[in-house]
Specification:
The longest helix is centred in the C-terminal third of the chain and has 20 residues. Helices cover 12% and strands 33% of the residues. The N terminus is likely disordered. By secondary structure, it is mainly β. Helix 5 crosses helix 6. It is built from 9 helices and 45 strands.
């Protein structure tokens, strides 16, 4: 008897060349947080990646969220392990006391800048720590926080307490899955239209509902006595204490009022949707006092199932506190049934209600277009923005008690028209107003590339004055004025040769060193060229350090398409030629160290008025790719026989379409894409028409339908735990089967425990190795196409 043993080789994580591993393992530059007092920078150091062992920890996927059931927190954290406090005035530093094996997230200053809070995630708990900014000394202020809905703590304006979400005391054990099903899982609909996008990690079963209620229920509490080490011992609080607020509930958002006396809360309630993530669940919007008593019921919001794809819910929405008032709420409410198809003179109204919340709301104004945002200056002047989707225009109005005055009217896609963002004293705080002026910081997109600016805008005349404009040979980004008159401004400055650092005028504040000397000598330039329809396109061309003029290299075009309303907006330059080259994560830019030229982020515009952009998606995509290839060939950098293409997500979708509808590229690398648009029938990306409205658009845009046309090698990669809307792993699985069924050259790799964005160190190095191996074989070392086997 003959026994045949079939063995499968064990797949293991690969490593790219040593030089790439060394550059990959470079420590990330510190991230800076400016204190509200504008006197101190908190510099955070973080690990670049978790390990695959960390990603493989237990995870629950509920209502669009991913949590670690051991910590009652997110599955992925920021990985900060150290914090340094640096005085801007003299550069003196102090190190913040952090716990051993720190895993820190959500670092925040108190309003006066005297304290710094941060969350530390342990193996089985989530803690609140408080540091004294003067000394850096810190201590744990509370444990058993519930961070399943995000940042669990917030500073009221008293600078002495924090409002936090906690795991309720005396909680029972988590619900266990029934060993035997009690029956089928049922969903039904009785004639109600409910068009929703395709989301992942939804609640599916009754057991999921019980798990969601168990892990996401929290108890609000006030943590006080949080001073940390600056007072004499006799006056120091012995230890922080926690006072409960109200009863446990599924609190989605909790925001203290500016005066700290009230809390704006949203409480999620049953029934839980099986189609929408948590932010679409039914909820009550209430105002609580510090004892947890409901002093105002603002809205009873039903599930957002049934809201039109381009619409909004019909009741009150977009709640926020007025940052300039002690306790005044402001929100928007639809006047058109929430549906853009309804023709009405006004889309929304904006209302307000002040403490003690016992009167009827006051209407502030109505908007002709859809309400987008409202913010107040320190002196009570409002800037209100509205958006018109069909024309892609944004208008901003000044509301100061009289007739609204139009401040800006600009195309959403037109980067050159962006006036910048108003400066606030803290996140979500009031806009800084000095006399009649506010300050604006913007990227400063221009034909020469981004040149950031700081403007001063008069709210009386609506005229602006440019106080600072980045030099033409550097990238200088204003962070914030340090003085009321903006004579001192904190900047982040970099050039192609100078590491990014923080400056005040000519004085350098930080001294970050080059983390990746392997990349010095790499050159880059921004180039422009025209598509066959006259649209101006642009990209940044990167060349390896050893490149010699006239040498032809293998070229990788890595891109991500975008929709635009018109050719003018699509033709505008974005990015800067003056940035310092740093490569992080699993960036395609690491290929520079393997002898490739990178044609990075070329404009791949899909242009069409209103909702029509995708009507000619394929033609425009191919035309943009042809123009890009013509440019690198014309420059003498690449030859047509050695050009590859790649992209992630919508860039993967682009890659597959280019290989399906052209023979422009020798090979493609597609990561975590969606390839069959009939699996996302209620819209995708910026497309808001449904499959049943424009079936030909969905079909033509789906490379799955053209799998038999793909003749050049394509690599498909997908995270097995993809969490992005529409990019289910089955998209790559079925596309691979279609390609294999038609004899394509294809490699299909799935990544254990990885989401839409890959994270683990082992995974990322493997991705880099796979890219190099693939492009080396099918692009760099490929024979001329004429000599290649058919």
């Amino acid at each position: 008897m003959l026994t045949i043993l079939l063995a499968t080789a064990l797949s293991t994580y690969q490593l790219p060349p040593k030089e790439i591993v060394e550059a990959f393992d470079a420590r990330p530059l510190p991230e800076a947080i400016l204190s509200p007092s504008r006197k101190v920078l908190a510099l955070t150091q973080r690990r670049a990646q978790p390990t695959i062992a960390e990603l493989a920890q237990p995870m629950l996927r509920l209502a669009g969220e991913r949590i670690n059931p051991k910590t009652f927190g997110p599955q992925r954290t920021r990985l900060i392990y150290a914090i340094t406090l640096e005085k801007i005035s003299d550069g003196s530093e102090s190190t913040v006391t952090v716990p051993s094996n720190a895993n820190i997230s959500w670092v925040k200053f108190s309003d006066d800048g005297s304290k710094l809070s941060f969350i530390n995630t342990k193996g089985d708990d989530t803690e609140l720590w408080i540091a004294n900014v003067t000394t850096g000394k810190a201590k744990m202020a509370a444990d058993h926080l519930n961070a399943t809905t995000g940042d669990p703590c917030d500073w009221p304006h008293d600078n002495a307490t924090l409002v936090c979400k906690f795991v309720p005391l005396g909680r029972r054990l988590a619900p266990s899955a029934p060993p035997v099903p009690s029956g089928p899982n049922v969903q039904e609909n009785e004639g109600k239209t409910a068009q929703v996008a395709t989301y992942e990690d939804m609640i599916k079963t009754a057991h999921d509902e019980e798990l969601f209620a168990y892990y996401f229920t929290s108890q609000l509490g006030v943590v006080d006595g949080v001073v940390a080490g600056s007072q004499p011992a006799a006056s120091r609080a012995k230890s922080p204490r926690t006072t409960p607020i109200g009863k446990p509930a599924i609190y989605n958002e909790v925001t203290p009022s500016p005066n700290g006396e009230y809390l704006l809360v949203t409480k999620i309630k049953r029934p839980f949707s099986h189609l929408l993530p948590m932010n679409g669940f039914a909820e009550d919007v209430e105002i609580l006092d510090r004892k947890g008593v409901v002093v105002g019921k603002i809205a009873d919001r039903p599930s957002r199932e049934g809201v039109p794809l381009t619409g909004v819910e019909t009741g009150p929405r977009a709640f926020r506190w007025r940052a300039d008032q002690p306790a005044t709420l402001v929100w928007a409410e639809a006047l058109d049934g929430g549906d853009l198809k309804n023709k009405v003179p006004f889309r929304d109204k904006v209302g307000t209600l002040a403490a003690p919340f016992t009167t009827e709301p006051t209407e502030i104004t109505k908007t002709e277009w859809r309400f987008r945002d409202i913010a107040y200056t320190e002196k009570g002047i409002a800037l209100l923005s509205e958006f018109d989707r069909p024309s892609r225009h944004i208008r901003t109005w000044v509301l100061d008690g009289g007739e609204p005055r139009k401040l800006w009217d600009r195309k959403q896609d037109a980067a050159y028209e962006n006036p910048g963002t108003p400066v606030t004293r803290r996140s979500a705080g009031a806009i800084v107003q000095i006399n009649d002026y506010i300050y604006l910081i913007g990227e400063g997109a221009s034909k020469e590339g981004d040149r950031p600016f700081l403007d001063r805008l008069s709210l009386k005349t609506l005229a602006s004055e440019r106080l600072f404009h980045s030099a033409s040979d550097a990238y200088e980004l204003p962070i914030a004025p340090l003085t009321d008159d903006a004579t001192q401004v904190l900047m982040r400055r970099e050039t192609p040769k100078d590491t990014p650092n923080y400056w005040v005028g000519s004085r350098q504040i930080t001294a970050f060193e080059d983390p990746q000397p392997q990349l010095r000598g790499v050159t880059h330039q921004y180039v422009t060229y025209k598509r066959n329809d006259g649209v101006t396109l642009g990209a940044t061309l990167y060349l390896p350090a050893a490149y010699k003029q006239g040498e032809k290299l293998p070229v990788i075009l890595w891109a991500y398409p975008r929709e635009f309303g018109d050719a003018d907006a699509a033709s505008q330059v974005s990015g800067s030629p003056n940035k310092f080259t740093i490569v992080s994560g699993y960036s395609h830019m690491f290929l520079l160290l393997s002898g490739y030229a990178i044609f990075d982020n070329p404009t791949m515009p899909i242009i069409g008025a209103g909702e029509t952009a995708n009507d000619h998606y394929v033609e425009q995509l191919v035309a943009s790719a042809e123009a890009a290839i013509d440019k690198v060939v014309e420059m003498g950098v690449g030859d047509r026989d050695r050009i590859g293409v790649g992209g992630h997500s919508y860039g993967a979708f682009m890659t597959a379409n280019l290989l399906a509808h052209s023979r422009l590229f020798r090979a493609g690398f597609a990561e975590s894409g969606a390839y069959n648009r009939t699996l996302t029938p209620f819209g995708f990306q910026s497309e808001r028409r449904t499959f049943w409205e424009v079936p030909q658009v969905y079909e033509t845009m789906s490379p799955f339908f053209f799998a038999d046309k793909i003749k050049d090698p394509i690599f498909l990669m997908h995270g097995e735990a993809d969490d992005n809307s529409g990019t289910f792993p089955i998209q790559s699985e079925r596309f691979y089967m279609a390609l294999k069924g038609h004899g394509a050259t294809v490699r299909y790799v799935t990544l254990p425990d990885e989401a839409h964005g890959y994270a683990a160190r082992e995974t990322l190095l493997d991705v880099l190795a796979e890219r190099i191996n693939w492009f080396d074989k099918y692009v760099k070392n490929a024979p001329p196409r004429a000599a290649a086997a058919p």
